[in-house]
Amino acid sequence: MLQHNLFSNGHFLLKSKSHYRISSVLRRLASYDQHESPTLPHLTHANPVLTLTDIIPSACQIVIAGGGIIGQSVAYHLSEYGAKDIVLLEKAKLASGSTWQSAGQGMHIQNTLIQTYFTKYSRELYKKLHDQGHDVGFSEKGGLWIAQTADRLHTLKRQYAIIKALDIDCELLNIDKIKERLPFINSHEIWGGLLIKDDFMVDPVPLALAFAKLAIDKGVKIIEDCAVTEILTEKQRAGQYDRITSVVTSQGPIKCDIFINCTGLWARELGYRSSPGVRIPTQACEYICLKTKPIANFPKRMPIVHNPDERFYLQPLANDAVLVGGFLRESKPIYKQGTFGKARWFNIVKREYNACRKGVAIIDMTSFTKYELKSANRSVVDFLQMLCANNIDKPIGSVIHTGMLNEQGGYENDCSVIRLDQY
Q: Is the predicted pLDDT of residue 90 greater than 80, yes or no?
């Protein structure tokens, strides 16, 4: 739960220990509306002038559904890499769905290494757009992650080692250094922290529209007030997925070869409108935040503050205002399904297995430890032959799944060995 006394400044409205009371307060006090970005004051960043398409074409190569920041980013990147004949469809107005609700934070601490790489790439891209004159609200505020427990501090130290190896500017802070940056914090409740100087902020709506302008300049057609109602497919030969033929919209059908679903909160619903239906594993969740009025004597160089132990953040905005976001803890289920018999995820694994048999599966293995073993002669092959239970001496390009054994012949682990070269 949110601790009422973590921050001594009462402006942060974190006085209640009840999540339900906090949830109610945050919902009532949210100061922005559907026309204003919560990240920075409205109209701080001028939106670019866009030349949109009025009439939907009868056919194209690629259709993108969704005019939020994801859809417009996809359109920009595809056009940047040379794709042609792209049409983006938005059911209302660009960036009017959930994009404007984004806090616009760029955090290098992520669940997987590939997500951290994406954040690093995004920072470089947004900085380039900023330097080119696109007013996207890019600001390198930095991010300060607070540890309120010894376990959290240990986790932050591990994350520090990972992102430091990726040449991301970061620093472990003791309590005194945290106090210098956050003079209002009650230091007796913290163990330490991690400052990531490369963490950043952007204003999501101007950024999305900047992507749209750059995509239009590359030939992408963008159509507003055009909702996708159904995706039509045709059967292929046995063992292959159905092929996209056309998309039905509120302005008429459009033939296409490739369809990309970037509809965010509505992606799952749109998936079910396909023929046949597609199960998209997304779930909309309530997001609770508020924006304060300007606070007197507010720290000028305050980073974005994250408290993962209590599940909230403080984000400095323009004019000494603050965006506060909080997340409710998941409730524990009253009844749990036991493990006797088939597990509850049995049918899910069955569908995944069948999907892998029919098509090409991309499995995220970035969290696995990877070692590259080389030698000038056969010694590396002989060593692995002795260490592993399976035959490693296979042709170049082979993937061998094997166990590694200890000196008593006991099973230590299982791993995948990819032979990249002779030795």
A: yes
CATH number at residue 392: 3.30.70.1400
The confidence score (pLDDT) of residue 408 equals 87
Q: Are residues 395 and 261 in the same domain?
A: no
The answer to whether 355 touches 361, Cβ cutoff 8 Å, is: yes
Mean pLDDT of 159-181: 93
Q: Which amino acid is at 22?
A: I
Q: Give 3-state DSSP helix, strand, coil % of the chain, rounded to 5.
A: 30, 20, 50
- Whether residue 266 is found in the same domain as residue 309: no
Distance CA 189, CA 6 (A): 7
Residue 85: domain span: 45-101+204-273
CA gap 172, 406 in Å, rounded: 38
Q: Which two tokens stand for residue 404?
A: 């590694």
Dist CA 262 CA 271 (whole Å): 11
- List strand residue ranges (DSSP E) for 53-205, in order: 62-65, 86-89, 105-106, 143-147, 170-173, 192-196, 200-201
- Which tens digits make up the pLDDT trace of 256-284? 999 999 999 899 999 988 878 888 888 77
The structure tokens listed for 60 are 């194209």
Of 199, 202, 103, 201, nearest to 144 by C-alpha is: 199
As for how many domains the chain has, the answer is 3
